[in-house]
Fold:
Amino acid sequence: MSRTLAELEYSVDEVKLANFAKALGHPVRIQIMKILTSQACCYTGDLTEIIPLAQSTISQHLKALKDAGLIQGEIMPPKVKYCLNKENWPIASKLFKDFLNP
Amino acid sequence: MSRTLAELEYSVDEVKLANFAKALGHPVRIQIMKILTSQACCYTGDLTEIIPLAQSTISQHLKALKDAGLIQGEIMPPKVKYCLNKENWPIASKLFKDFLNP
DNA sequence: TAAATTAATCGTATATTTGCGATGAACGAA
DNA sequence: TTCGTTCATCGCAAATATACGATTAATTTA
Structure:
């Protein structure tokens, strides 16, 4: 990727929505989000049992969702409990809905 | 990317939704889709005027959206007119809505 | 037929994504 | 303190994504 022309001026919401969409752009991350939207929370260990990928890979996907602001993790030694991000999930949800119903 | 473990069995809808989300995971493509959801159609040339990227780059983004099934192009020589994909956009829309309202 | 217009595709360079195993950090239990 | 458990992070390899300019293909106009 390179940027030679003047910086693009996307709207803030367009960039936000694109970032949320990008974070959802993998089946594993959709799967994780579906679990978190259908039940309250889950532990990393639950996911490593359901999803046949290496623990480190699942951890990376969780990090991607966390970095995107879609989920949040709470340390419950020795486990980590993940939930939807209380602050951002409603924002993401609204951005998608507005996008789908213009 | 490599796959050494047994093939994953995601649900068909999870894979579909992830693919749609992935296609939307770039601000330019969000911008294009917003134009197409707010007005009927547009020509490639309209986009190259609005978006300060090389024509070839915009064409690539259009291809990504087309490959994902979100838009469709109609040749209107010497231009090409793009619209939402009549068949798939409603499907994508429903998948997102069901995902957002579980 | 030749020239102009429009948009897709090719070729290339760089950055990011995705996967893995190995290692490290934090904590409770023995 | 030492040992296990749990999860994040590191380091690597391969694949994809993103951008560009140059070229090609298709069609209309002169």
Notes: Chain B has a mean pLDDT of 91. The first strand of chain B starts at residue 41 and ends at 43. Residues 1-2, 26, 53-54, 56-57, 60-61, 64, 75, 77-78 of chain B lie near DNA strand D (CB under 10 Å from a C1').
